[in-house]
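Section handout, structural biology tutorial.
Before the tutorial, make sure you can parse a SMILES string by hand: atoms, branches in parentheses, ring closures as digits. In the record below the ligand is zinc ion, and the chain has 172 residues. In the tutorial you will relate the predicted structure tokens back to the input. Do not try to memorize them.
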Amino acid sequence: MPRPRSPAPSVRVGPNGRILALSVAWFTDGAERRRAARASARCVECARPLPSHRTPYCSRTCQWKFHGHYFWDSARSYVLLRDRYRCQVCGVRHRARELQVDHIVEIARGGAALEYSNLQTVCRSCHAAKTRAFLRTHRSDAGASTSDAGSAAPPPAAGPAESLRATGPAPD
Ligand SMILES: [Zn+2]
Ligand SMILES: [Zn+2]
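Predicted structure of the complex:
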């Protein structure tokens, strides 16, 4: 069951105020959830029964999806897969490198960063059009509020401890 997550010093924020990693949460909250899932032999993501206690994931998809609650790269990979590499604006399918994962409600407007319901696959041109429109209205919103990422502790070297690493370069 999801529990409320308060912003911790481990939160690594990238350009656009995007959350890139919740590293400490992965090793605390995330580790606890994986441990409990193994103990009860139920998938940590979808709660389906597992064949053994060795892994907390029933499938690679669930593994990605679970990592994505903590790491942007994994969230991105999962969203591309979920949307079947189809731009959710124009409906055209593209190669992965032509696609970007976009926040439906921009973070600057309070959209959730690592929340699947707020993420969608868009192609480059649709994304560029959306960003232009956003900047136009955002500038007139009277003074862009810049979030300061600098006050937090230095970003810990992050990475899922388990095997899977998401592919691809840093977003945007
Ligand atoms: Zn599962
Ligand atoms: Zn498009």
